[in-house]
Amino acid sequence: MRIEEIKENKKQYLDLLLIADEQEDMIDRYLEKGDMFALFDEEVQGVCVVTLEGTTCEIKNIAVAESARGKGYGRKMIEFVKANYKGKCHTLLVGTGESPLTVPFYQRCGFVLSHRIENFFTDNYDHPIYEAGVLLKDMVYLKMDI
Predict the structure, then answer these.
(1) How far lies 40's CA from each of 47, 104, 133, 143, in Å?
(2) Considering the domain 2-145 in this protein, what is its CATH number?
(3) In the chain, what are the domain boundaries?
(4) pTM for the complete prediction?
(5) How do residues 32-64 score in pLDDT, each as one tens digit?
(6) What's the half-sphere exposure (Cβ side, CA atoms, 13 Å) at 68?
(7) Strands 91-97 and 139-145: what pairing?
Protein backbone atom coordinates (compact mmCIF):
# COMPACT_ATOMS: atom_id res chain seq x y z
CA MET A 1 0.00 0.00 0.00
CA ARG A 2 1.20 3.50 -0.82
CA ILE A 3 -0.21 7.02 -0.86
CA GLU A 4 0.87 9.41 -3.61
CA GLU A 5 0.17 13.08 -4.22
CA ILE A 6 -1.71 13.69 -7.45
CA LYS A 7 -0.62 16.98 -9.03
CA GLU A 8 -2.00 16.66 -12.56
CA ASN A 9 -5.10 15.22 -14.22
CA LYS A 10 -7.00 15.12 -10.94
CA LYS A 11 -10.27 14.62 -12.77
CA GLN A 12 -9.16 11.13 -13.83
CA TYR A 13 -10.32 10.15 -10.32
CA LEU A 14 -13.74 11.77 -10.72
CA ASP A 15 -15.57 8.46 -10.24
CA LEU A 16 -14.09 8.19 -6.74
CA LEU A 17 -14.51 11.89 -5.92
CA LEU A 18 -18.20 11.64 -6.79
CA ILE A 19 -18.68 8.99 -4.10
CA ALA A 20 -18.05 11.61 -1.41
CA ASP A 21 -19.43 14.63 -3.26
CA GLU A 22 -22.22 13.85 -5.70
CA GLN A 23 -22.09 17.02 -7.76
CA GLU A 24 -19.18 17.73 -10.09
CA ASP A 25 -19.46 21.53 -9.99
CA MET A 26 -19.10 21.38 -6.18
CA ILE A 27 -15.92 19.30 -6.60
CA ASP A 28 -14.65 21.89 -9.09
CA ARG A 29 -14.78 24.53 -6.34
CA TYR A 30 -11.93 22.92 -4.39
CA LEU A 31 -10.20 20.35 -6.60
CA GLU A 32 -7.52 22.55 -8.18
CA LYS A 33 -6.79 24.60 -5.06
CA GLY A 34 -6.53 21.49 -2.88
CA ASP A 35 -3.80 18.92 -2.44
CA MET A 36 -4.98 15.55 -3.74
CA PHE A 37 -3.75 12.17 -2.59
CA ALA A 38 -4.54 8.68 -3.84
CA LEU A 39 -4.14 5.45 -1.91
CA PHE A 40 -2.97 2.52 -3.97
CA ASP A 41 -3.03 -1.16 -3.03
CA GLU A 42 -2.07 -2.53 -6.41
CA GLU A 43 -4.68 -0.19 -7.94
CA VAL A 44 -6.27 2.99 -6.60
CA GLN A 45 -8.54 2.30 -3.64
CA GLY A 46 -9.25 5.80 -2.36
CA VAL A 47 -8.69 9.52 -2.77
CA CYS A 48 -8.55 12.55 -0.53
CA VAL A 49 -8.48 16.31 -1.22
CA VAL A 50 -7.22 18.70 1.46
CA THR A 51 -7.17 22.50 1.46
CA LEU A 52 -5.04 24.69 3.71
CA GLU A 53 -7.02 27.58 5.17
CA GLY A 54 -4.56 29.55 7.32
CA THR A 55 -3.79 27.40 10.36
CA THR A 56 -6.62 24.99 9.53
CA CYS A 57 -6.52 22.09 7.08
CA GLU A 58 -9.83 20.85 5.73
CA ILE A 59 -10.55 17.48 4.21
CA LYS A 60 -12.85 18.50 1.35
CA ASN A 61 -13.29 15.03 -0.10
CA ILE A 62 -12.32 11.57 1.09
CA ALA A 63 -13.64 8.47 -0.62
CA VAL A 64 -12.86 4.78 -0.76
CA ALA A 65 -13.99 2.56 -3.62
CA GLU A 66 -17.06 0.57 -2.67
CA SER A 67 -15.24 -2.74 -3.20
CA ALA A 68 -12.44 -1.62 -0.84
CA ARG A 69 -14.53 -0.46 2.14
CA GLY A 70 -14.02 -1.99 5.56
CA LYS A 71 -10.31 -2.59 4.97
CA GLY A 72 -8.99 0.43 6.87
CA TYR A 73 -8.14 2.55 3.83
CA GLY A 74 -10.19 5.56 4.97
CA ARG A 75 -8.50 5.54 8.36
CA LYS A 76 -5.08 5.21 6.68
CA MET A 77 -5.83 8.28 4.55
CA ILE A 78 -6.78 10.29 7.64
CA GLU A 79 -3.62 9.17 9.47
CA PHE A 80 -1.59 10.19 6.42
CA VAL A 81 -3.24 13.63 6.29
CA LYS A 82 -2.61 14.18 10.01
CA ALA A 83 1.07 13.29 9.64
CA ASN A 84 1.51 15.22 6.37
CA TYR A 85 0.02 18.46 7.70
CA LYS A 86 1.42 18.36 11.24
CA GLY A 87 3.37 21.59 11.66
CA LYS A 88 1.58 23.20 8.69
CA CYS A 89 -1.73 23.61 10.51
CA HIS A 90 -3.09 23.17 14.02
CA THR A 91 -6.61 21.94 13.30
CA LEU A 92 -7.94 19.37 10.86
CA LEU A 93 -11.58 19.88 9.82
CA VAL A 94 -13.93 17.66 7.87
CA GLY A 95 -17.48 18.50 6.80
CA THR A 96 -20.08 15.87 6.11
CA GLY A 97 -23.77 15.23 6.09
CA GLU A 98 -25.45 14.12 9.27
CA SER A 99 -25.32 10.48 8.29
CA PRO A 100 -25.28 7.44 10.58
CA LEU A 101 -22.40 6.11 8.46
CA THR A 102 -19.96 9.00 8.17
CA VAL A 103 -20.22 10.89 11.48
CA PRO A 104 -19.44 7.80 13.62
CA PHE A 105 -16.54 6.91 11.29
CA TYR A 106 -14.92 10.30 11.82
CA GLN A 107 -15.54 10.12 15.56
CA ARG A 108 -13.80 6.72 15.69
CA CYS A 109 -10.85 8.36 13.92
CA GLY A 110 -10.58 10.97 16.69
CA PHE A 111 -12.68 13.86 15.37
CA VAL A 112 -15.13 15.70 17.65
CA LEU A 113 -18.15 17.76 16.66
CA SER A 114 -17.31 21.39 15.90
CA HIS A 115 -20.19 23.24 14.25
CA ARG A 116 -22.76 23.00 11.48
CA ILE A 117 -23.95 25.00 8.51
CA GLU A 118 -27.71 24.72 8.34
CA ASN A 119 -29.30 23.73 5.02
CA PHE A 120 -25.93 23.46 3.27
CA PHE A 121 -26.92 20.49 1.13
CA THR A 122 -30.42 21.71 0.32
CA ASP A 123 -29.12 25.20 -0.56
CA ASN A 124 -26.05 24.18 -2.61
CA TYR A 125 -26.95 20.97 -4.46
CA ASP A 126 -29.31 20.65 -7.39
CA HIS A 127 -30.85 17.42 -6.08
CA PRO A 128 -31.68 15.86 -2.70
CA ILE A 129 -28.83 13.78 -1.28
CA TYR A 130 -29.56 10.70 0.79
CA GLU A 131 -27.11 8.56 2.70
CA ALA A 132 -28.23 5.41 4.54
CA GLY A 133 -31.81 6.52 3.94
CA VAL A 134 -31.27 9.92 5.58
CA LEU A 135 -31.89 13.17 3.68
CA LEU A 136 -28.80 15.32 4.17
CA LYS A 137 -29.61 18.93 4.98
CA ASP A 138 -26.98 20.44 7.28
CA MET A 139 -23.21 20.26 6.85
CA VAL A 140 -21.78 18.92 10.11
CA TYR A 141 -18.17 19.87 10.80
CA LEU A 142 -15.89 17.75 12.93
CA LYS A 143 -12.39 18.73 14.04
CA MET A 144 -9.25 17.45 15.65
CA ASP A 145 -6.04 19.07 16.80
CA ILE A 146 -2.92 17.91 15.02
Answers:
(1) 9, 25, 30, 26
(2) 3.40.630.30
(3) 2-145
(4) 0.94
(5) 999 999 999 999 999 999 999 889 999 999 999
(6) 20
(7) antiparallel
